[in-house]
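Backbone-to-sequence.
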């Protein structure tokens, strides 16, 4: 079991900022190509959205890893966003009122922020206040990127 943990940690350390940027661009381009090939009438396929979202999150993670000078674990970072946002999409369905959307998306945002805080703590960031602020900024920038990835293909359709 300790061998698996060592290999996992070695893989995460191997994924430095440059490799995260390259993988982010690859995921993003793959999402654009998949969406372009199938051209859905609504403007964005769910599969291509997941690829685009993963690409954007890799780029956000690389940016904050570089700014913080610590290697933020990419797998946990991306999974936190994707799982919580997929859960929010699944639960929201057709929300008619803003208050209903706020009640659902607000806790999801807070939960992603808390998960990002824990990921920064695991990555070795020392100060509580710095972790909280960086986790908040990561979450906001990630959500802005995801919103752009969601809206732009629909807008151009």
């Amino acid at each position: 079991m300790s061998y698996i943990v060592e290999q996992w940690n070695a893989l995460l350390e191997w994924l430095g900022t440059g490799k995260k940027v390259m993988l982010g661009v690859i995921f993003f381009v793959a999402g654009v190509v998949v969406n372009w090939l199938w051209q859905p009438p609504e403007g964005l396929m769910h599969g291509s959205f997941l690829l685009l979202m993963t690409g954007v999150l890799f780029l956000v993670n690389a940016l904050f890893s570089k700014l913080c000078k610590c290697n933020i674990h990419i797998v946990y970072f991306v999974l936190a966003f994707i799982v919580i946002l997929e859960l929010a999409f699944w639960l929201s369905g057709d929300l008619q009122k803003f208050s209903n959307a706020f009640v659902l998306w607000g806790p999801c945002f807070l939960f992603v922020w808390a998960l990002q805080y824990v990921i920064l703590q695991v990555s070795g960031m020392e100060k509580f206040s710095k972790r909280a602020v960086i986790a908040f900024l990561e979450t906001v920038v990630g959500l802005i990127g995801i919103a752009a990835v969601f809206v732009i293909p629909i807008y151009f359709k």
